[in-house]
Every structure is written in structure tokens, then in C-alpha cells.
Amino acid sequence: MLTNAPRGTKDILPEQIGNWIEVEKKIRDICKLFGYEEIRTPTFEHTELFQRGIGEGTDVVDKEMYTFTDRGERSITLRPENTASVVRAYLQNKLYADGSVQKLFYIGSMFRYDRPQAGRLREFHQFGVEALGEKNPALDAEIILLAWDFLKSLGLEDLHLKINTVGCPHCRPVYRQKLQEYFSEYSEELCGDCKKRIEKNPLRLLDCKVDGEKEFMQDAPNIFTCLCDDCKEHFDKVQKFLQAAKIDFEIDSRLVRGLDYYTKTAFEIRYAPLGAQSAVAGGGRYDGLVEEIGGNPTPGIGFAAGLERILIALEKQNLLKSAEKNFDAFIVAVGSAAEIFGFEILSKLRRKNISATMDFAKRSIKAQMKQAAKSGAKFALIIGDDEVENSTVTVKNLETSEQENISAEKILEIIKK
């Protein structure tokens, strides 16, 4: 039906938008505090960017991308995530030229063809940060701290941080082989997706929602037995920096995230009351992504947070505010001449940064007064034939019900007081 939005999309209505704006303000406040600057990338990119960046064989690339051929016969994809796009922008615009670490953040729509449910839509909104050009584990901790402090600044409680390391190109192949050997013995018990993952992406076997609770999962190889010295040292230092920042965390060896580009640190922040969709922020290090996309070897780390899930979490804690309409003045005009005179005053008020509105339906004075009260206005400015003739306005204080007739020239002065 034309009157319904496409499945998996949702309108954000005027009474809801105030909470979105408040969350976005918190995002900009925390990013300014940490020294991250905003970047805006295109909503769609060349499909190959995500195939190479995210990795073929991942659920995102194989099942969830919105891909189409444009009129120039180019394969185009609506962005399913924004890290690859930020890296592409970093390379195209030579943001690396000054040699300093680039700290960037974004807010925007992402698109994945998935089964719609609470907190998971086909068009969803993400806030994310990316730091490019530095491999120091202190930066890993800073990224995690930014995500943690942002969620705390919203008033969220019952947050739980999980961290892990997924190794690097030197030690991960060893772990990958161990996983393949182990899970091959249980291939008949695996779900259809995991049977394919054994060869393509065995790390994803560890966080399968279907097979995750099966008994053989508990004895799967642990990545810490395969880590190289560099990965061990990096992960140890990340933990020390988090401890220095007084952030509690849990090491979860089965936390691998869903995208191929992660190396070393991976993390998630979960809000337990959301149940199965409890991850409200997550990310990690991706030291090979810039090179994969076509740049020089460049370390990077970032995270993304789903705004829909965050708003659901805020609702569960009764932290969402009710929409308020707070006009300074509502003009009640009765008659054609009063309507023109009222519109003149309305324009003057707005140009002096006084919020004002009026009735455009030419209703009775009683109906307009009801609308004035409903609008949340502090004053009703009543104009009839007598007011037009004398160039005056009857000003009624809607809180005290006091009213007086004053010169139209003094309206600005009265309302400002």
C-alpha cells in the first residue's frame, strides 16, 4: 500500500524527534570533548568497496546488502555500515597528509535487508567514530571510553562491557585452522549458515545465534592459545588502560563481531534489558582495512552504536522526554482585517526571535483560545475589529488569565518582559 512505509523502515514523528535531537546533541558534545570531528559520507557507494572492506562470505555482504545496477551499468550499494566509507573518504581526500591521527565521527542511515524486529530495522541509524593512523593500544581504550561515557551521559544504567582480541594476520590463520578442524567433526550438527562458515569465515561460528548454546560450542578452541606475542602485549595494555580509566569489563573469548576487517581488539557494550538485541555499541581495531581498500598500511579503530536501540533503552529507563510545544505567543484573530493585522504582528515577533503562531482556519474566538492553550503558548494576543481600528492588541496571560489592552507597538516589549 502506498500509505505504508516499506517494511523495515519507520517514520520519526514530530513528537519523537526531540529525543533524537537530544541524543544527537550528546553525541556532538562527547565527540567535541574527545577531539573527534564530524564527517558525512554518501548514502551509497560502489559495491566493491563493501565486498573488499567488509569481506565476502560475511552475512552482511552475502545476504543483507541493498545492491542495484544504476543507469551507467555500475553496481551500487546502499551503505550497510560506514567504516568502509570513512576509510574511502580518508584515502580519496588525503586526510592522512599531515601525518597526525585522524579522529572522525558520523551520524547517519545504514541499510541491511534483515528480518525487522525491535531495535533492528532495514533502514537504521548509527553513530560511529573512527580513529585512523595510530596503533597505540591507548587509542583502543579511548575509543571504548568514548562509547562508554556517551551511553552513561544519556543516563543509561545496567551497561556491560565485553572485550576480546581476534588476533592479527600472523596468528589468526593458526586459530582459523584450529576452528575448522574442530567444527568439521560437528558439521552435521551445525545450522545451514555455519556449515558454509567452516570454510569461509570460521570465526563467525563462535557467535552463531542458532548453534551458540549447543554443548560442543563450549569446548571450541580458545583464541588465547594461538595469539602471537604482539597481540598478547597489545591486549594486555588495552586492559591496563581500561583499568586506569576505572571501567569494568569482562573478557569474552567468543566475541568476534560480524565483519572480516577486525584485528586485535574487539568489544561490545550491552544493555541487558534489551534481551537478544542487547548490544547497543560495538567495534574494534581494523589495521588491515585501509590497505585492503587501496591505501598504504594504516592502523585504525572505531565503533558504531545503533540509535534505535539506544532510544529503546532510554524508554525502558523512562528517560525519554514528552514532546513540548512552548510558543511565546498565539495570535487569535477574528475577521479578515484582524487576520492581516495579526499576520503583521506575527512576522515582527518571529523576526525578533519570539516564537509565535496563529490560527489559519478562521475558527471562532472560543476555538482559537482552546488552540492557544493547547499550543503551550504563554500569551494569547487577541485581535478583533476594535483592536484593528485602534492599533492595539488584547494580551492575555494564559497562566494567570490576566489580560490588558495595549498598543501594538509595545507588544515586543511586553512579551520580552
Question: How would you spell out the order of helices and strands?
Answer: HEEHHEEHEEHEHHHEEEHEHEHEHEHEEH
Strand fraction equals: 15-25%
Strands of the biggest beta sheet: in what spatial order?
A: 1-5-6-11-10-9-7-8
Main beta sheet strand tally, sense and closure: 8 strands, mixed
Low-confidence stretches: none
Shape: elongated
Count of beta strands: 16
Helix content: 25-40%
Estimated radius of gyration: 28 Å
Give an overview in words.
The chain has helices at 14-34, 47-55, 59-64, 83-92, 137-153, 172-184, 192-200, 229-244, 289-293, 307-316, 336-351, 365-374, 385-390, 411-416; strands spanning 37-38, 44-46, 67-69, 75-78, 102-111, 123-132, 159-165, 250-251, 263-271, 279-285, 300-306, 329-333, 356-358, 379-383, 392-397, 403-407. The radius of gyration is 28 Å and the shape is elongated. The chain is of the alpha+beta class and 417 residues long. The mean pLDDT is 92. The protein has an eight-stranded mixed sheet, sandwiched between helices. Strands 13-12-14-15-16 form a five-stranded mixed sheet, sandwiched between helices. α1 (14-34) runs antiparallel to α5 and α5 packs parallel to α8 (229-244). 37% of the residues lie in helices and 21% in strands.
Q: What's the SSE blueprint?
A:
Layout lengths: L13 H21 L2 E2 L5 E3 H9 L3 H6 L2 E3 L5 E4 L4 H10 L9 E10 L11 E10 L4 H17 L5 E7 L6 H13 L7 H9 L28 H16 L5 E2 L11 E9 L7 E7 L3 H5 L6 E7 H10 L12 E5 L2 H16 L4 E3 L6 H10 L4 E5 L1 H6 L1 E6 L5 E5 L3 H6 L1
Parallel strand pairs: 1-5, 7-8, 12-13, 12-14
Antiparallel strand pairs: 2-4, 3-4, 5-6, 6-11, 7-9, 9-10, 10-11, 14-15, 15-16
Helix pairs in contact: 1-5, 5-8
